[in-house]
Design a protein that fits this description.
single chain, about 55 residues, alpha+beta, two-stranded antiparallel sheet, 1 helix, 5 strands, about 30% strand, elongated
Length: about 55
């Protein structure tokens, strides 16, 4: 999940799929989505990553 804030500091949460190269995390989104517009206007954001652990 990525959390962004708009110009009024109102939070917006979106579920995203990510990919990692071991050092950086990448997400894909459209240029006109609210999360992309929020990031372009205000670079404050958080990313919550869930891990899938298998039971043994």
């Amino acid at each position: 999940m990525i959390s962004t804030v708009d110009q009024h500091n109102t939070p917006h949460n979106s579920v995203v799929v990510y990919q990692s190269d071991g050092e950086d995390l990448y997400i894909q989104t459209g240029a006109n989505t609210l999360k992309a517009r929020n990031i372009m206007q205000n670079n404050k954001r958080t990313l919550q990553v869930g891990l899938n652990y298998e039971k043994k």
